[in-house]
Design brief:
about 260 residues, about 25% helix, 6-stranded mixed beta sheet, 3-stranded mixed beta sheet, Collagenase (Catalytic Domain), 6 helices, single chain, globular, binds zinc ion, about 25% strand, alpha/beta
């Protein structure tokens, strides 16, 4: 309950005070990190053994043209959740909360409804709430992370901003404690970031995954007031792990993106 209350308080503080939780466009001018970034822990939850369920919203995901990308993303989660990318987050363990490997618990293509051409964050929250309640999605647990993928052509509107105009992905928590990430199809130069579509999507997804693990309610886990979350400080700096393009993440210990 404390979790839900905190999320609500945060939302009432106004959009502009929202802690950073987006992947910015690759082309967006970015201020250099302010001072020496240092994430500090603010007593909120962490996803210690994250349970990812991938959701592909819309009939378009049943098209043979989009199936390879869906398979690619599920294979990516199966690999990355037990990889060194998760291991490197252990420096953010706190007493009683050790960040360990996670798992992908499943995947679904949701076709009962279709995403609007411009999908609002509120519509995504509502979808998750209703599909969890109806049993179409697995029940929420303290380690659950629902990862929502949108088909080509669907734009997401969140906090007064739009995907492919301002951001490429984000994560957040609903007031009733559902942790989720949204990664629209990267169908624009700013969200391709010079990468092939599958690589751009794993890069953005890895950014949101690591942030959801270390700061599931944005601003209440590991956070830097000047520079944001673990992935924000290193946006679009990538490496290859197990054949997948992933984003570098900030390390307090190394004082660098690693
Ligand atoms: Zn971020």
């Amino acid at each position: 309950m404390a979790t839900a209350r905190k999320a609500k308080d945060r939302k009432s503080s106004g959009e502009l005070q929202h802690p950073l939780r987006i992947v910015p466009l690759h082309s967006a001018p970015r201020a250099a990190a302010t001072g020496s970034p240092q994430l500090t822990y603010r007593n909120g939850p962490l996803l210690t053994n994250v349970q990812v369920f991938s959701i592909f919203w819309g009939k378009a995901w049943q098209d043979s043209a989009n199936l390879p990308l869906m398979t690619h993303m599920n294979d990516f989660f199966d690999f990355i959740l037990t990889s060194k990318l998760v291991d490197q987050l252990s420096e953010y363990n706190i007493p009683g909360k050790s960040i360990g490997h996670g798992a992908r618990t499943g995947s679904t293509v949701l076709t009962k409804s279709e995403p609007a051409k411009t999908v609002t964050d509120a519509a995504i929250q509502k979808l998750l709430q209703s599909e969890i309640a109806s049993g179409s999605l697995p029940a929420n647990t303290p380690d659950s992370l629902y990862f929502v993928f949108l088909p080509p052509g669907a734009q997401v509107s969140q906090g007064g901003a739009k995907s492919c105009e301002t951001f490429c992905g984000y994560h957040d928590a609903t007031n009733d404690g559902i942790f989720y990430a949204v990664t629209p199809y990267p169908g624009c130069t700013g969200c391709e970031g010079g990468l092939a579509i599958p690589d751009a999507l794993t890069s953005t997804s890895s950014h949101e995954l690591c942030e959801a693990i270390t700061d599931p309610i944005p601003g209440t886990g590991w956070y830097d007031d000047a520079n944001g979350e673990i992935g924000d400080i290193c946006a679009w700096k990538t490496k290859t792990l197990g054949g997948y393009v992933v984003q570098l993440e900030w390390s307090n210990e190394a004082e660098a993106c690693v």
